[in-house]
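note to self — DONT lose this again. spent like an hour looking for the file last time. sequence + predicted structure for the chain T wanted, 162 res
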Amino acid sequence: MLLSEQAYRKIDRELTKFPPEQKRSAVMAALTIAQDEHGWVSPEIIRDVAQYLGQPPIAVQEVATFYNMYNTKPVGRYTLAICTNLPCALQDGVKSAEYLKEKLGIDFHETTADGLFTLVEGECMGACGDSPVMIVNGKHMCCRMQPEKIDALIGELKQESA
């Protein structure tokens, strides 16, 4: 078993939401729990989740690779997803993305040398009126991300990780 006892308990809680013969319905929740614990879902974790749910590993792999919310490769401690879709682009989303690239010294789908940050382009985050929008680790939405707010966020995250 590759996950903590607490993670398996969380998966068990998710399983109670579905009929016993529908364990596969908990695949997305189980992958999210695993990713929250490890930062990404490795092939070994995918096999472990599949075994725990009584599913073929390929079925879990298909889910993990279909949705862009799952990291199937190692990422930094903080994944920064910035929206560059048209509404955000019109409100400086692309400029904010370029600023982030320059500030971090990386491009999209790269991780800083210190392992802290991975930068990705995000799809529409449903907050066009608050653009440019960024989501940290798929959970914390940050709005109106102009350079000064980006600097403050990066500083806070660096301090938090120290």
